[in-house]
Design brief:
By secondary structure, this protein is an alpha/beta fold. Helix content is 30%, strand content 23%. It has a domain of 331 residues: TIM Barrel. Bound molecules: N-(aminocarbonyl)-beta-alanine and zinc ion (ZN) (3 copies). One zinc ion binds next to loops. This is Dihydropyrimidinase. It holds the Pfam family Amidohydro_1.
Amino acid sequence: MKKVIKNGTIVTASDEYVADLLIEEGTIAAIGKNLPEDGAEVIDATGLYVFPGGIDPHTHLEMPFGGTVSKDDFATGTKAAAFGGTTTVIDFCLTNKGEPLQAAIDRWHAKSQDKAVIDYSFHLMIGEINDQVLEQLPSVIDDEGITSFKVFMAYKNVFQADDETLFRTLVAAKDLGSLVMVHAENGDVIEYLTKQALANGQTDPIYHAKTRPSEIEGEATGRAAQLTGLADSQLYVVHVSCAEAIEKITEARQKGIQVYGETCPQYLVLDETYLEKPDFEGAKYVWSPPLREKSHQEALWNALKAGHLQTLGSDQCSFDFVGQKDLGKGDFTKIPNGGPIIEDRVSILFSEGVKKGRISLQQFVDLTSTRAAKLFGLFPKKGTISVGADADLVLFDPTIERVISASTHHMAVDYNPFEGMNITGEPVSVLSRGEFVIREKAFVGTEGDGQYIKRQKFGTSDSLPMKTSLQVEV
Ligand code: URP
Ligand code: ZN
Ligand code: ZN
Ligand code: ZN
C-alpha cells in the first residue's frame, strides 16, 4: 500500500532537508512538504534521519573457506544486514578453475534464492583467464548483470591468481565495461613468511598478522594500480587496511589512473593487539588483510575524509569461535579467515565517523551507500533518495546509545568482534522497495523477498566518472 513518511530529515550524499516521502509501488513517488495522506499509511519520522538504504559491496555469505563454510548465509546474513541499515549486498561468487562460469553463478543463485530478505547482487571471481573464459564474460555481464570481477592476489594455491591473469582481466574489463576488484596482498611473500613462522614454532593467532605485514599490502596495491594504468582500465581495491596501500591508491589517482578504494569498520576501530588476546581468543580477529598497528587507523580516517578511499564494505565472512575458528588451534594458518561485521558496518561509521566529527553526514551516506551504487551500476535506482528511486530507506535515530554485543546481535555466530563497544545512533526501521523489513527494531521481513539485481556496466548511466571525483578531491 501507499506510504507517506512524514517529517523525517532526509539525508543524501549532497543534501539534508526536512520533507515527506510518498512511496508507491516500491519506489519514491514524491518528495515534498505536507504531501497528501489520503489512502496512505502514515509513518512519523520526526527527529529521525532518513538515509538511502546502505549498500554493502563486500560480503561472503555461506562461503566455503578453510575447510568450513562461513556461518551466516543469505537468510541470517541479510537479516542482520537489514537490522544494521543495509538494504543491498553484493556477494562474491567464487569460481573453480575449468568450470563454466555459469555453473558457479547458478550455485550462488541456488544459495541465495528464497533466502535473502533484502536485494542482492554478485561479483564474479576470476581465477584464470583463457579463451574459454573470455568467451563467457559477455554473457556474464549481459545476461546476469554481473559487472565487476574479483581477482585475488593472495591465498596461494587456493584463490590466488598470477599477474598475467590480473592484467588480462583488467584489459578485458576495460572493453566490456566491468570494474576489476582486487584483494591486494602479495601471496607469494606471505607463503614464505608463513612457512618460516611455522618452522620457528610461531603458531599463535598473532602470527597471522606478523606474516602479512602492511608493506606487502602496499606492494600488491601499487602493482595492481600500475597494471591498471598500463591497461587503461579501472580498479577497486577491497578491504584497504594500511597507510602503505592508501599511499599507492592516492598516488595512482593523482596520476589519473582509475583506482578506487574500500575500507571496512574493523580496520577503523580495532588494532593488531586484539590478535594477542589469551586463550586463543585472538582467533576471533583473524582475517586478511590483518588488523594493523593503531597508527594506521588515523591514516584510514584521513583517507575517508579526503576522498582517497570511497566506500565502506563489511567483508562479512563469519565463523563461530567454537567449532570453526578453533580449527586453527596450534596452527594459525588453519584459522578460517573472516569476521562478522555486516550488522554493525553502518552504525560504526555513524558513531565513530559522524558523531566524532571525522566525516560529514553527507560523506557517511556516500561511503555507506551512494558511491557503491555508482561504482557498481546500481545508481540511481539505489543509493539515493530521489523520485523514481527504489524506496530502500533507513529511519535512523541518531540519539540512541547502545553497546554492541553478540548477546543482542542478529548474526548467526557466537561472538562479535566489537563486543562492549559503546555506539550512538541506530536504525529503527528499514524498508526495502517500500516494504518494512525492520519495523521499530523488530524483524518483519520475509525470506525470499530480496530480489537478485542485475547491474549496469561500469561507467554507464549516472556512474561517477573518475574526473568528477578528482575535481572534488582536496
Ligand atoms: O579474511 C577475509 N577477509 N576473509 C574473506 C575473504 C577475503 O579475503 O575477502
Ligand atoms: Zn504495501
Ligand atoms: Zn579479501
Ligand atoms: Zn572479502
